[in-house]
Write a structure and sequence with these properties.
This protein is an alpha/beta fold and about 525 residues long. It folds into three domains: about 250 residues, no CATH class; about 80 residues; about 80 residues, no CATH class. The protein has 20 helices and seven strands. Strands 4-3-5-7-6 form a five-stranded mixed beta sheet, with no helix packed on it. The chain has a two-stranded antiparallel sheet with strand order 1-2. Strand 3, helix 20 and strand 4 form a beta-alpha-beta unit. Helix 1 runs parallel beside helix 18 and helix 14 packs antiparallel against helix 15. The protein is globular and about 85 Å long. The protein starts with 8 loop residues before the first helix and ends with a strand. About 40% of the residues are buried.
């Protein structure tokens, strides 16, 4: 029996089921492993805003921090206050919610203009994009939150433009872009300028750029940015922002290694949007360009993607995470074309071979999983393996009996893999990584120094994971000083004091020894 969008009742239930399973997988063990990479930096700046009772001036270990404005840190502060603790879960939940938000926003937008079937395929395509699914969705980083803001501005641009509600269009798009600048810096400027130009040129409404509504949007943009920097200026000189943000943006446009980047960058991003990339061979048929041109939204999304992607394609230092906001544009277009494809004999053969290979790999691998010595730290591996094998058996049945289309089976496989990832990888990170050692050391130092002064002496630098857990445990900023007094100090060997002191701990950062001493 067919339901909305051409899906059977079973397929509709399957889609809902895998979405729920994905949400569960994204949250399983999210908070059991220590902060690492850039996570402790984001959390640290939020902590210091709380401890200093100043949400306007970002600092890192008491020093002014200019590389990222504070909006993302504000979301972390709200998360810490909501959960009542400075935890790993509270640090990462913003990224997970943003990722889910990208999928739901894509679904709602695509359903309105392209129907339920395209919307469901697009949302699942966004939520199973492999680079985000297995990497960034498990980190408390800035990129997914920023991408969600930017994606919403793309959708608002088209939605309100088609309704000819230009005040809403410009106020929302420019407002979101201003918040984007206060989240990640000047990368929102090209997104804003290019996207607005693409839409109004494509829609042949260029004169609207000279309208009062457009100037109203610009005024809101200036008001939001000016308001923040005015508040900042009440505490510190804001001039450091300009050189840092402009310098960072200019650094992405270098020329060294340009040819390699031109070759690697599109291939890397095509890999990142898997499984949607697997649809590309199905589009090798006559009349493809006409099909794209006949659907105004799809044509606009492809143009918007290409125009914005080009900026990063020629920027040598650009990373794929910089264009996460563009992925849904491509995926919606691919999903639409997939629903219009001509059924040819080789299409069915293509899918059946592909899905068989994808099902065989976990079918053979899961029975071995409980017996891998390198995963000894993971408990209940036999039960995990049995549960996942039952899931794989269900997918085999749905596939062989043709109860669910092969492309949907692929989504189910990726979400199962993410569930396995959530049950295994966080446990190994919590037990065996250098970040785990840094977390233990940070907590130990916070406990032993409670009630006494603790400083960094001179220009000493150390793992931000250690610093995060020290500040979270002591609930105060780990500041820098240039003189020794009674209390605890981190210092380099050449800075050890001449007066009597007790060596408490020695550890290394970038192969340089750092000493924790107690001065009487």
């Amino acid at each position: 029996m067919m339901q909305e969008g051409g899906f059977s009742r079973l397929e509709s239930s399957y889609i809902l089921g895998v979405f729920v399973l994905l949400v569960v997988a994204l949250f399983v063990n999210l908070g059991i492993y220590p902060l690492f990479l850039e996570e402790p930096r984001r959390g640290l700046i939020a902590l210091e805003m709380i401890f200093r009772d100043n949400w306007w001036v970002p600092t890192q270990t008491g020093d002014l921090y200019f590389r990222k404005p504070p909006v993302y840190n504000w979301t972390l502060i709200l998360s810490y206050k909501l959960f009542g603790e400075y935890s790993e879960f509270a640090t990462r939940v913003v990224s997970v919610v943003s990722f889910i938000g990208m999928g739901i926003s894509t679904f709602l937008f695509a359903r309105r203009y392209l129907g339920f079937r395209v919307a469901a395929l697009s949302a699942l395509g966004v939520l199973t994009s492999v680079d985000i699914l297995f990497y960034f969705s498990s980190l408390g980083e800035i990129d997914l939150f920023y991408s969600w803001l930017t994606l919403l501005s793309f959708f608002a641009l088209y939605h309100y433009g088609e309704k000819e509600r230009y005040w809403q269009l410009f106020l929302i798009v420019y407002g979101l872009s201003a918040v984007g600048i206060l989240t990640k810096g000047l990368s929102s400027v090209p997104f804003l300028g290019i996207s607005v130009l693409v839409y109004f040129l494509y829609a042949r409404k260029f004169r609207k750029l000279l309208s009062l509504a457009h100037f109203g949007g610009i005024a809101l943009f200036v008001l939001i940015l000016g308001g923040y920097f005015y508040m900042y200026s009440q505490y510190e000189d804001p001039s450091g922002w300009w050189s840092t943000l402009v310098g960072e943006s200019a650094g992405r446009a270098g020329s060294g290694g340009l040819l390699k980047h031109l070759l690697d960058f599109p291939l890397e991003n095509l890999k990142n949007v898997l499984p949607a990339t697997l649809l590309v061979p199905l589009f090798l048929s006559k009349g493809l360009s006409k099909r794209i041109k006949d659907q105004k939204l799809v044509m606009f999304l492809f143009l918007l993607f290409l125009a914005n992607f080009l900026v990063y394609w020629v920027s040598v230092d650009a990373k794929s995470r910089y264009v996460y906001a563009l992925y849904p544009l491509l995926i919606v277009g691919f999903s639409y074309l997939y629903t219009l494809r001509e059924e040819r004999p080789w299409h069915d053969k293509y899918w059946r071979i592909l899905i068989c290979i994808c099902l065989v790999i976990p079918t053979l691998g899961l029975p071995v999983f409980p017996f891998l010595d390198l995963l000894d730290v993971v408990d209940n591996r036999i039960w995990m393996s049995l549960g996942l094998m039952c899931y794989i058996a269900l997918l085999w049945w749905l596939f062989l009996k043709r109860k669910v289309r092969p492309y949907l089976i692929l989504f189910g496989l990726l979400i199962m893999a993410r569930l396995w990832f959530s049950m295994v990888v966080p446990v190994t990170r919590a037990e065996t990584t250098g970040a785990a050692e840094d977390k233990a050391l940070g907590r130990e130092i916070a406990a032993m120094s409670e009630g006494e002064v603790l400083y960094r002496y001179g220009d000493v630098r150390m793992s931000l994971t250690i610093v995060y857990y020290i500040e979270a445990g002591r609930e105060e900023v780990l500041r820098q000083t240039n003189r020794f007094e009674k209390g605890y100090f981190f210092c380099y060997q050449e800075d050890l004091p001449e007066r009597s002191y007790e060596l408490i701990e020695e550890f290394h950062y970038h192969q340089k020894p750092i000493f924790l001493i107690r001065v009487d």
